[in-house]
Write a structure and sequence with these properties.
The protein is built from 11 helices and 42 strands. With about 850 residues, the chain is mostly beta strands. The protein has 3 domains: about 80 residues, no CATH class; about 90 residues, Immunoglobulin-like, CATH 2.60.40; about 550 residues, Neuraminidase, CATH 2.120.10.30. This is PhoX family phosphatase. InterPro entries: PhoX.
Length: about 850
């Protein structure tokens, strides 16, 4: 074909594509030959011009649309032939500069169309850990920086499609650094408020006396209020949040805007519950006052939701419930039906009434709540001579067992049993008198000699069924239970549940279920039946820690080792006897005596278990060991001192093979509580400073794995319940990003106390440094306790327990929460649950 003919044919094709008058304008002569070069491809496949336009737009070399591109390639003649500029235009886009951020931060991607008309634009991710883009189909998208353990680059592309279907793109990157505690540490304080970092806000959610149904009015807070079966109890403690579906009362584990909050009411501040404190009556207390104090104990189940004005509880929700020392309960597991549980109320040993002195908690994967009975023994009365009566009527074993649990011959907390019965046959008060009546049946079915054996258990509650009966899970043993926290659940592996026995020189326990975990059980509707499956059969173990950093789990199984009827210190009769008297079994097995084992928490990423050892005033230089290595004096600025291990520490262990079924572990001490001014060589072993020094760690919790705070390098939260450091600061909440077992080394210190001096070698983790910061300081005379978050990690719930506990109506020592707004007030203090959120809506702590 002649060149002129080929060029003419090309022009004709282009003008058919780009200019309708092309043929007329050229006055092309008629030809007698058709070479087949006509447009018969009617598909929407891209034309080369489209590709050229997209390419040139993306590189941003030409800014005049398709006409400029054509001119660059073919010259101006082509445009003259078409008689007008090309109607098809691409766009020019930018994706913004590269971004550097850290885990948990909100990242905003800002793209723009700098030229041309866009019919659509948006963002897509091209590399790195997958994130969820909010508003990805717009020019401004956002996402939460994912959990990473090393600096990680994520790639993103912004694209725009012109009105003519031409796509232009631009790329950018976001580099995410590992998690940091991105807040300024809160200073130590003696003020009467809850102080949190700048950028955070506090909302008081649920206070002592708040009504939970329509049967009672607002709380007067002057001592005249009653009917605490329909009000919030006192001394808010361990707590769990359970998501609720947006409508109805069914669980939704992913809901972060509506849920059921379940919390313990451990004890009471007696002075503030009555108009002028408890009535002083010679020989007997008023019945109404006693019943009020009893009902202030137990558990609250309340519905809460986040609305346009923030978080609030629903006072009349059908899910709201109080569980008190009077609520019917049932026993399950190996001790159910044992004669050790026989009482006048429960002659078969399978039923009980209520729960008391509930401290820490546990959240089960199948959406139930575990509440744990701690200092229950002090509530029971035993008259002088009861030990002798027990020896004569039952056996000497009974007195030995009671002594091991602190059930001495005494009047009982608050002298409840001096009050008259509310009515004939009403034994709600009488059940707290465990004194033997030798004229009644020796098996205990005629009195309440065995009532103390009905307490000291882990109790499971279904938060979604107000009509359900709480179950006491006896396979987990009887002790001063703190929390009961489940380790990581892995399909086909038997889950483990970790528990501390909170008293001086007591033990750490682990229960391993007999049933391997099945993931489908997490979404069951018969939740207490799943509790039966995992919590009623298995093996309870006690921990023995060696100086070399190793440890063993010793089984509490009747017939094994010293746990037999031949044991000289205590003759065990059967497995029910072993579990009911787990402390005696731990003694026989040689378990390691610890400095008040309190809350447990499990790292959701690596499975390591952390345990707070709050303090131990009876620790001496001679009784220190590698796991409890300090004995010293801590002087107060106001005069006097505390001694033993007054500031406590946090220990951690890693199961052999990283499996919950392991019988061995390794351990070290994550952090030692101490004032920053104390001797770093022998006391302040973790090199704490003014931003993170603390004393008496108590509450302990890891962020949920459902958000980035609980992934990668998870955040751990430490709460304090202190008497040693309260001359300097109120109790506090600290955030930590802990390392792992073995990240430090071996350390030898010199202890000196009461004239005795000796060296002790221990295993200490890497100094926390800036990975431990004070996040919150509470009001006067309080304990910080109880903690959980919404699944998205953007709200955390914390309990403020017994503010102003040392005061009375005539001399109030705290006005919190009334004082939260201004720091002052006039009202009586109230234990309460607070909600902490970020003003920018971000993830707490990061």
């Amino acid at each position: 074909m002649p060149l002129s003919t080929g060029k003419a044919a090309w022009r004709a094709a282009c003008c058919r594509k780009f200019g309708g008058k092309f043929m007329t304008m050229l006055n092309q002569p008629t030809i007698g030959y058709d070479d087949g070069d006509i447009d018969t491809n009617l598909t929407a496949n891209p034309h080369i011009a489209d590709l050229i336009a997209s390419r040139y737009s993306r590189r941003q070399t030409l800014r005049g649309g398709l006409s400029a591109m054509t001119a660059a390639v073919f010259g101006s003649t082509m445009l003259t032939a078409c008689d007008k500029d090309d109607d098809r235009r691409g766009t020019t886009v930018t994706a913004g500069s590269a971004i550097t951020t850290s885990v948990g931060k909100t990242v905003t991607l800002s793209g723009s169309v700098t030229s041309g008309n866009a019919s659509a634009s948006g963002w897509t991710q091209t590399s790195g850990p997958i994130v969820t883009l909010a508003n990805g189909a717009t020019a401004t998208a956002s996402f939460t920086a994912p959990a990473v353990t090393a600096s990680t680059v994520l790639g993103f592309q912004f694209s725009s499609t012109s009105s003519d279907g031409i796509k232009s793109v631009a790329d950018t990157t976001v580099t995410v650094a590992p998690a940091t505690l991105d807040f300024t540490a809160v200073p130590k304080s003696l003020a009467d408020i809850v102080a949190v970092p700048s950028g955070y806000q506090v909302t008081v959610l649920y206070r002592l006396g708040d009504p939970i149904n329509a049967s009672v009015g607002a709380y007067a807070n002057d001592g005249t209020d009653a009917t605490f079966s329909a009000r919030a109890g006192d001394h808010h403690d361990g707590m769990s949040f359970f998501g609720l579906a947006a409508t109805g009362t069914t669980p939704d584990a992913n809901s972060s805007t509506r849920g059921v909050l379940v919390l313990n009411h451990e004890n009471i501040t007696q002075n503030y519950l009555h108009p002028n404190g408890p009535t002083s009556v010679a020989g007997a207390r008023p019945t109404a006052e006693v019943l009020k104090e009893m009902e202030c104990h137990g558990v609250s189940v309340i519905e809460i939701a986040r609305g346009t004005s923030g978080w609030a509880y629903a006072p009349t929700s059908s899910l709201n419930r109080r569980i008190t020392p009077f609520t019917p309960t049932s026993f399950s597991g190996p001790v159910a039906g044992s004669g050790l549980l026989f009482t006048a109320f429960s002659p078969t040993g399978r039923a009980g009434r209520g729960t008391i002195n509930n401290c820490a908690n546990g959240t089960m994967p199948w959406m139930t709540y575990l509440t744990n009975e701690e200092n229950w023994a002090g509530y029971f009365r035993r008259d002088t001579g009861d030990n002798a009566r027990r020896t004569a009527a039952v056996s000497a074993k009974s007195s030995v067992a009671f002594a091991r649990y602190g059930l001495s011959e005494r009047g009982g907390n608050y002298n409840w049993t001096t009050a008259a019965a509310p009515a004939a046959g009403d034994t709600r008060i009488a059940k707290f008198n465990a004194t033997i009546d030798p004229t009644l049946p020796a098996n205990g079915t005629g009195d309440f000699r065995n009532e103390p054996n009905q307490y000291g258990w882990v109790v499971e509650i279904d938060p979604f069924d107000p009509a359900s009966t709480p179950r006491k899970r006896t396979a987990l043993g009887r002790m001063n239970h703190e929390g009961c926290v489940v380790g990581r659940t892995v399909a086909g592996i038997k889950p483990a549940f970790y528990m501390g026995d909170d008293a001086q020189n007591e033990y750490l326990y682990k229960f391993v279920s007999a049933t391997p975990w099945a993931a489908a059980d997490a979404t069951t509707t018969n939740r207490l039946a799943i509790g039966d499956k995992y919590l009623d059969s298995g093996t309870l173990y006690v921990a023995k820690l060696a100086a070399d950093g190793s440890g063993q789990w010793l089984p509490l199984v009747f017939g094994q080792g010293p746990l037999t009827a031949a044991n000289a210190a205590y003759a065990f009769a059967d497995q029910a006897d072993v579990l009911t008297h787990a402390r005696l079994a731990g003694d026989a097995l040689g378990a390691t005596r610890m400095d008040r084992p309190e809350w447990t928490a499990v790292n959701p990423v690596n499975g390591e278990m952390y345990l707070t050892l709050t303090n131990n005033s009876s620790r001496t230089v001679a009784t220190t060991d590698a796991a409890n290595p300090r004995a010293y004096t801590d002087p107060k600025t106001t005069g006097g001192s505390t001694s033993g291990n007054p500031n406590g520490h946090v220990i951690r262990l890693r199961e052999s093979g990283d499996t919950s079924e392991a019988l061995a572990f390794t351990w070290d001490i994550y952090a030692f509580g101490a004032g920053s001014d104390l001797n770093p060589a022998n006391i302040n072993l973790s090199n704490l400073d003014a931003t993170n020094d603390f004393s008496s760690p108590d509450g302990l919790w890891f962020a949920r794995p459902s958000n980035v705070a609980g992934q990668g390098t998870p955040l751990m939260w430490i709460e304090t319940d202190d008497g040693a450091y309260t001359d300097v600061t109120n109790c506090m909440l600290l955030a930590a990003i802990p390392g792992s077992v073995g990240d430090g080394g071996t350390r030898t210190i010199t202890n000196s106390l009461n004239g005795a001096t000796a060296s002790q070698t221990t295993r200490i983790g890497k100094a926390p440094g800036t990975n431990l910061k004070r996040f919150l300081v509470g009001p006067k005379e309080c304990e910080i306790t109880g903690i959980d978050s919404t699944p998205d990690g953007r709200a955390i719930f914390v309990n403020i327990q017994h503010p102003g506990e040392n005061g009375n109506p005539a001399a109030i020592t705290s006005n919190w929460p009334q004082s939260q707004a201004t720091g002052t007030g006039t009202g009586r203090p109230r234990s309460a649950t607070i909600v902490i959120t970020k003003t920018d809506g971000g993830i707490i702590g990061l």
